[in-house]
Amino acid sequence: MPPTIKDIAKKAGVSVTTVSKALNNYQDIKPETRKKILKIARELNYQPNTTARNLVLRKTNTIGLIISGLSTSRSAHHFLFDVICGINDQAYGKQYDVLLYGTNSENQKRMSYLDLCLQRNFDGVILMGVKTDDPYVQEVVEAEIPTVLIDVPIVTSTCGYVTTDNVKGAEMAVQHLLDLGHRHILMINGHRQAFVSLQREEGYKKALEANGLPFREDYVAYTDFESDSGAQAVVSLLQKHLQATAIFCASDLIAYGVITKCMEMGYRVPEDISVIGFDGIQLGEIMTPALSTIYQNRYVMGTSAVNMLIEMLEGSEGYSRVLPPTLIQRDSTKAITN
Q1: Domain HTH lacI-type: where (predicted)?
Q2: What is the pLDDT, as a whole number, of residue 16?
Q3: Where residue 11 sits, what CATH number does that domain have?
Q4: CATH of residue 185
């Protein structure tokens, strides 16, 4: 197997991004670092990935929309649908076609990111749903194909991302509960392999610490962002922590499952326990009680991803766009009463 920039990075003791910049003559690399990297590249007989570069030069006006975990079993498509609509509308307006491709962790091991892009003739790619341990997370950097990730914080010369400020959003949700007088606040998070799960837990911790409250690991449960999992998690948490008066859920779907199960268990929402979600999907408006939530503009995430990708296809470097979250207070949260 021919050497890659990952091999150079490992031998030089630097990041893949630093190697890529050195090989492409970017000016923000120290001269001694560039010299070291070029020397190692020669020693390894590294050849630039001209195939990938030719792919970019041969315009097809086709954007690849690669979604990991796309299946009929996932109700989380409430979130995906709005992002996809934003991508499709903006791409159409810019005279680009969008080709949707579903994948998963196992498929990523069988076909590399570069091979997939070559086979499908993508000018560039928008990538969604990948986990922290998915192969494509590293391969998007190595492939050097213009790529925009949704909710995965990676920036290189050929890669950028769009996300909501998940840390701030979680802080806002927990601070809302704290302002209502709640002090024993549980969290039902998504799975540990999601970047947004890590960020939302960080925001949960920051809000507690800012108010002089300790973070307790036993107050947090992990799910897959789905309603059924949220329902299962809340049973265990409430049995262990009878003092809890509020729950922050990392998605609106988790919150839906939590509220449904709480009512089955005899809890009144919000009189006995307040619940707040994250996403701002339409379900929250029509459920009973209407769900307090942190709204993220999923449609704008989609349009922003297309705009960023086209800028990169026209020669710009990757960057990040972080959208502001909005607190929506409805009927599922209430001031605590003694």
Answers
A1: 3-57
A2: 72
A3: 1.10.260.40
A4: 3.40.50.2300
